[in-house]
Amino acid sequence: MPDTAPSSAASDDDSRDIAEFLGNWAEAIVSNDVDRMARFTTDDWILVDQPGAISRARFHAVVADGSLQHTSMTHDILGITRLGSVAIVRTHGRTAGTYLGQAIAADEWTTDILVHGADGWRCVLTQLTPRAIPSEET
Protein backbone atom coordinates (compact mmCIF):
# COMPACT_ATOMS: atom_id res chain seq x y z
CA MET A 1 0.00 0.00 0.00
CA PRO A 2 1.55 3.35 -0.96
CA ASP A 3 2.38 5.88 1.74
CA THR A 4 0.17 8.91 1.15
CA ALA A 5 0.97 10.84 4.34
CA PRO A 6 2.34 14.34 3.73
CA SER A 7 6.06 14.20 4.30
CA SER A 8 9.09 16.10 3.19
CA ALA A 9 12.77 15.95 3.85
CA ALA A 10 14.06 18.92 5.79
CA SER A 11 15.73 21.68 3.82
CA ASP A 12 19.47 22.22 4.20
CA ASP A 13 18.75 25.27 6.40
CA ASP A 14 16.38 23.23 8.59
CA SER A 15 18.93 20.45 8.85
CA ARG A 16 21.64 22.89 9.99
CA ASP A 17 19.30 24.58 12.46
CA ILE A 18 18.16 21.26 13.92
CA ALA A 19 21.73 19.92 14.13
CA GLU A 20 22.73 23.10 15.98
CA PHE A 21 19.68 22.76 18.25
CA LEU A 22 20.57 19.14 19.12
CA GLY A 23 24.21 20.04 19.76
CA ASN A 24 23.28 22.93 22.03
CA TRP A 25 20.69 20.80 23.86
CA ALA A 26 23.28 18.05 24.42
CA GLU A 27 25.70 20.66 25.81
CA ALA A 28 22.95 21.91 28.14
CA ILE A 29 22.26 18.39 29.38
CA VAL A 30 25.97 17.73 29.96
CA SER A 31 26.15 21.01 31.91
CA ASN A 32 23.63 19.44 34.35
CA ASP A 33 22.06 22.91 34.58
CA VAL A 34 18.28 22.45 34.70
CA ASP A 35 17.52 26.08 33.80
CA ARG A 36 19.70 25.79 30.71
CA MET A 37 18.18 22.41 29.81
CA ALA A 38 14.62 23.78 30.10
CA ARG A 39 15.11 26.12 27.14
CA PHE A 40 15.14 23.14 24.76
CA THR A 41 11.85 21.46 25.70
CA THR A 42 8.19 22.35 26.01
CA ASP A 43 6.72 22.39 29.51
CA ASP A 44 4.91 19.12 28.74
CA TRP A 45 7.96 17.34 27.22
CA ILE A 46 7.99 13.59 27.82
CA LEU A 47 10.97 11.23 27.69
CA VAL A 48 10.02 7.64 26.85
CA ASP A 49 12.69 5.22 28.02
CA GLN A 50 12.90 1.69 29.44
CA PRO A 51 11.18 2.58 32.74
CA GLY A 52 8.32 4.22 30.81
CA ALA A 53 7.21 7.81 30.32
CA ILE A 54 9.21 10.34 32.33
CA SER A 55 7.96 13.91 32.66
CA ARG A 56 10.17 16.93 32.19
CA ALA A 57 9.65 17.79 35.88
CA ARG A 58 10.85 14.32 36.99
CA PHE A 59 13.85 14.34 34.63
CA HIS A 60 14.87 17.80 35.80
CA ALA A 61 14.38 16.83 39.47
CA VAL A 62 16.86 13.93 39.30
CA VAL A 63 19.39 16.16 37.55
CA ALA A 64 18.85 19.01 40.03
CA ASP A 65 19.33 16.75 43.06
CA GLY A 66 22.46 15.17 41.56
CA SER A 67 21.02 11.66 41.20
CA LEU A 68 21.57 11.80 37.44
CA GLN A 69 24.62 13.54 35.99
CA HIS A 70 25.69 13.55 32.35
CA THR A 71 29.35 13.72 31.31
CA SER A 72 28.98 13.29 27.54
CA MET A 73 26.27 13.16 24.89
CA THR A 74 26.47 12.93 21.11
CA HIS A 75 23.93 12.51 18.33
CA ASP A 76 24.50 11.38 14.76
CA ILE A 77 21.49 12.56 12.77
CA LEU A 78 20.03 9.76 10.65
CA GLY A 79 17.08 11.63 9.21
CA ILE A 80 14.81 14.63 9.58
CA THR A 81 11.24 14.86 8.31
CA ARG A 82 9.63 18.29 8.32
CA LEU A 83 5.83 18.58 8.49
CA GLY A 84 5.01 22.27 8.69
CA SER A 85 6.15 23.54 12.09
CA VAL A 86 6.95 19.99 13.27
CA ALA A 87 10.15 18.03 12.69
CA ILE A 88 10.68 14.36 13.41
CA VAL A 89 14.37 13.76 14.05
CA ARG A 90 15.97 10.32 14.14
CA THR A 91 19.46 9.93 15.59
CA HIS A 92 21.99 7.48 16.92
CA GLY A 93 22.83 8.81 20.36
CA ARG A 94 25.52 7.99 22.91
CA THR A 95 25.45 9.18 26.50
CA ALA A 96 27.64 8.70 29.56
CA GLY A 97 27.32 9.82 33.14
CA THR A 98 26.29 8.58 36.55
CA TYR A 99 23.01 7.57 38.15
CA LEU A 100 22.93 7.30 41.92
CA GLY A 101 26.72 7.34 41.89
CA GLN A 102 27.07 4.42 39.46
CA ALA A 103 28.55 4.85 35.99
CA ILE A 104 26.05 4.63 33.15
CA ALA A 105 26.42 4.58 29.39
CA ALA A 106 23.81 4.39 26.66
CA ASP A 107 24.05 3.60 22.97
CA GLU A 108 20.59 4.13 21.53
CA TRP A 109 18.34 5.09 18.68
CA THR A 110 16.45 8.30 19.43
CA THR A 111 13.39 9.92 17.96
CA ASP A 112 12.66 13.54 18.87
CA ILE A 113 9.52 15.42 17.89
CA LEU A 114 10.32 19.11 17.64
CA VAL A 115 8.01 22.07 17.17
CA HIS A 116 9.11 25.41 15.75
CA GLY A 117 7.66 28.56 17.29
CA ALA A 118 8.55 32.17 17.99
CA ASP A 119 11.40 31.08 20.29
CA GLY A 120 12.83 28.55 17.81
CA TRP A 121 12.85 24.77 18.09
CA ARG A 122 11.60 22.98 21.21
CA CYS A 123 11.29 19.26 21.83
CA VAL A 124 7.85 17.86 22.72
CA LEU A 125 8.73 14.17 22.97
CA THR A 126 11.87 12.04 23.03
CA GLN A 127 11.75 8.27 22.49
CA LEU A 128 14.86 6.23 23.34
CA THR A 129 15.44 2.68 22.12
CA PRO A 130 18.56 0.80 23.23
CA ARG A 131 20.75 -0.13 20.30
CA ALA A 132 21.09 -3.88 20.01
CA ILE A 133 24.73 -4.82 19.72
CA PRO A 134 25.29 -8.19 18.04
CA SER A 135 26.87 -10.71 20.36
CA GLU A 136 30.20 -12.18 19.36
CA GLU A 137 29.98 -15.54 17.70
CA THR A 138 31.81 -18.31 19.53
Contiguous uncertain segments of 5+ residues:
1-6
Radius of gyration from the alpha-carbon trace, in angstroms: 16 Å
Strand order of the largest sheet: 1-4-5-6-7-2-3
The ordered string of helix (H) and strand (E) elements is EHHEEHEEEE
In percent, how much strand structure appears in the residues? over 45%
Cα end-to-end separation: 42 Å
Note the overall shape.
Answer: globular
**Topology, number of strands:** 7
Protein name: Nuclear transport factor 2 family protein
Organism: Aeromicrobium phragmitis
Pfam family, one: DUF4440
Domain DUF4440: 24-123
List keywords for this structure.
Nuclear Transport Factor 2, Chain: A; disordered N terminus; 138 residues; single chain; seven-stranded mixed sheet; alpha+beta; 25% helix
What does this structure look like?
With 138 residues, this protein is α+β, with helices and mostly antiparallel strands. It has one domain (8-130): Nuclear Transport Factor 2, Chain: A, CATH 3.10.450.50. Helices cover 25% and strands 52% of the residues. It has helices spanning 12-31, 34-38, 56-64, and strands spanning 8-9, 41-49, 52-55, 68-83, 86-99, 102-117, 120-130. It has a seven-stranded mixed β-sheet, covered by helices on one side. Strand 6 and strand 7 (120-130) form a beta hairpin. The longest helix is centred in the first third of the chain and has 20 residues, at 12-31. The protein is globular and about 45 Å long. Residues 1-6 have low confidence and may be disordered.
Question: How is the topology of this model organized?
Answer:
Elements: E1 8-9, H1 12-31, H2 34-38, E2 41-49, E3 52-55, H3 56-64, E4 68-83, E5 86-99, E6 102-117, E7 120-130
Parallel strand pairs: 2-7
Antiparallel strand pairs: 1-4, 2-3, 4-5, 5-6, 6-7
